[in-house]
Design brief:
Blueprint lengths: L3 E3 L7 E10 L1 E2 L6 E2 L4 E2 L8 E7 L9 E10 L3 E2 L2 E2 L2 E9 L3 E5 L8 E5 L6 E9 L3 E3 H24 L1
Antiparallel strand pairs: 1-14, 2-13, 3-4, 5-12, 6-11, 6-13, 7-10, 7-12, 8-9
Length: 161
């Protein structure tokens, strides 16, 4: 397999897949809060190319880390009595900017979850799925040989007869 050939710069190739805002639970006296738990996206993704945006309204200018996104793949195994174990690919997210993520294409669909830093009192998270044309550089070269070069060579051989 060669390198993927994508059209990432075309906004028509991206669909907003999921967006949410979550607030930490603040204590009754307002002096402490319970950290935001793992956010699980409730539907399965098909594209292995996604982009994410993470923001926190009370973030400090020195904060750059936005958490982790976890790819969860159903393995169909039962281990220790727990069915449907997950394999996890983890990628770092950046605060207040888009992060491009290319997960390995292991299965047709997968789930994702987001872990945000425990010091976030709120988070707004958006997930975009790449829906554009995706080809492979090796596949493109094979098609070039098959559809252009080979017919040209055959026509030259036919001309010699």
């Amino acid at each position: 397999m060669g390198n993927p050939v994508l059209q990432l710069g075309n906004s028509a190739n991206w669909d907003l897949f999921y967006s949410t805002t979550v607030e930490a639970v603040i204590s009754s006296n307002g002096e402490s809060y319970t950290p935001i738990p793992t956010i699980t996206v409730p539907t399965l993704l098909e594209s292995h190319i996604i982009a994410t945006s993470v923001s926190c309204s009370n973030s400090k200018p020195t904060w750059y880390f936005g958490g982790f996104i976890n790819q969860r793949i159903n393995l169909g195994l039962t281990v220790g009595g727990l069915p449907d174990s997950d394999a996890v690919q983890k990628r770092r997210l950046y605060l207040n900017r888009l992060t491009l993520i290319v997960f390995p294409r292991l299965v047709p669909t997968y789930a994702v979850s987001i872990d945000v830093p425990k010091w976030f009192q709120n988070v707004t998270f958006s997930l975009f799925e790449y829906t554009g044309i995706e080809s492979d550089s090796t596949e493109d070269l094979i098609n070039q040989i098959k559809n252009v070069d080979l017919p040209r060579i055959e026509s030259k051989i036919d001309a010699l007869h």
